[in-house]
């Protein structure tokens, strides 16, 4: 069983490839599962004796995507019997201590993290100075190498599961990067509190070129974007997945004035209707 969260398609693409190679069913959207559970419900599942539990999600500010952490906080595996639990995070460059943070979150639910791995994918975070999408050349290179990286990740998952590789969050394919403690233990908590917390405000807005198609509201995983009078309105609680700004068909959405000169990115193999 593989659960995923995606904003612009990178993690969904990785989850589907892992699922195909492992011969599992379609990956399950944690955004949809949280919607079904409601504001305070749990997300309960059962695993077969030989079934893995996989979590695939993007790295946001050197930590797990906020919505994946919310899902894990409500996750209940009935009659857990020691099955392998792995995480695969997609990142533009490095992951910091995302592996440890996910291990801590799972441990609070009585689940071990047997392996945490990462796959480099094109950058999509454009809401802060110094960040931006990759050049066309870098994007193409990352997309070309991604299948090989996913195959290496799957090999590690299978090796850990069979006991031929040592278990642990540092196993195999994982890029920590420099100054991980500062990034994950100082910067990430600030990001989650002030930029992506339940009461956080957003600077997203739609300009005059908006055609009122409502796509931004449909792809928003948290329901933060709603339509009013044919125009999108952003409420509180944005988790900064950037789905709305990257998916806008007429590039009408911006974050303040910062993103006017920034590029946009979505995984080229995925359609808008799939990114939930």
What does this protein look like?
The protein has 276 residues and is an alpha/beta fold. It is built from eight helices and eleven strands. The chain has helices at residues 10-22, 30-37, 66-74, 98-107, 136-162, 180-195, 215-219, 243-247; strands at 2-4, 28-29, 43-46, 53-58, 75-78, 85-91, 115-120, 204-206, 225-228, 231-234, 253-255. The protein has a five-stranded parallel beta sheet, with helices on both faces. It has a two-stranded parallel ribbon with strand order 3-5. The longest helix is centred in the middle third of the chain and has 27 residues, at 136-162. It is globular and about 55 Å long. It starts with a strand and ends in a 21-residue tail after the last strand.
Brief sketch in words of this structure:
The chain has 276 residues and is of the alpha/beta class. It has helices spanning 10-22, 30-37, 66-74, 98-107, 136-162, 180-195, 215-219, 243-247, and strands spanning 2-4, 28-29, 43-46, 53-58, 75-78, 85-91, 115-120, 204-206, 225-228, 231-234, 253-255. The longest helix has 27 residues, at 136-162.
Task: Throw out a few tags for this protein.
5-stranded parallel beta sheet; 34% helix; two-stranded parallel ribbon; 8 helices; alpha/beta; 276 residues
> For the residues shown, what is the average pLDDT?
92
Q: Report the helical percentage.
A: 25-40%
Can you summarize the main beta sheet?
Answer: 5 strands, parallel
The main sheet orders its strands as: 2-1-4-6-7
Strand content: 15-25%
- Count of helix runs: 8
Radius of gyration: 18 Å
Q: What gap, in angstroms, lies between the N and C termini?
A: 18 Å
Structural class: alpha/beta
The shape is: globular
- Tally of strands: 11
Low-confidence stretches: 167-171
**What is the N-to-C order of secondary-structure elements (H for helix, E for strand)?**
EHEHEEHEEHEHHEHEEHE
């Amino acid at each position: 069983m593989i659960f995923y969260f995606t904003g612009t398609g990178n993690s969904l693409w990785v989850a589907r490839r892992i699922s195909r190679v492992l011969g599992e069913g379609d990956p399950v959207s944690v955004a949809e599962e949280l919607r079904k559970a409601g504001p305070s419900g749990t997300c309960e599942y059962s695993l077969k004796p030989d079934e893995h539990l996989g979590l695939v999600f993007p790295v946001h500010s050197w930590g797990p995507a906020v919505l994946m952490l919310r899902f894990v906080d409500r996750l209940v595996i009935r009659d857990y019997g020691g099955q392998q639990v792995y995480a695969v995070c997609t990142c533009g460059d490095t992951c910091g201590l995302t592996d440890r943070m996910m291990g801590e979150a799972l441990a609070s639910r009585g689940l071990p993290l047997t392996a945490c791995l990462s796959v480099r994918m094109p950058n999509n975070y454009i809401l802060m100075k110094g960040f931006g999408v990759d050049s066309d050349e870098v994007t193409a290179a990352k997309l070309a190498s991604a299948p090989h990286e996913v195959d290496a990740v799957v090999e590690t998952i299978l090796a850990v599961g069979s006991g031929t590789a040592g278990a642990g969050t540092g196993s195999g394919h994982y890029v920590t990067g420099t100054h991980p403690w500062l990034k994950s233990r100082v910067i990430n908590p600030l990001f989650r509190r002030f930029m992506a917390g339940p009461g956080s405000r957003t600077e997203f807005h739609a300009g005059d070129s908006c055609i009122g198609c409502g796509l931004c509201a449909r792809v928003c995983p948290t329901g933060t974007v709603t339509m009013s009078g044919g125009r999108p309105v952003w409420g509180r609680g944005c988790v900064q997945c950037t789905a709305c700004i990257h998916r806008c068909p007429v590039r009408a959405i911006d974050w303040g004035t910062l993103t006017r000169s920034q590029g946009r990115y979505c995984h080229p193999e995925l359609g808008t209707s799939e990114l939930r």
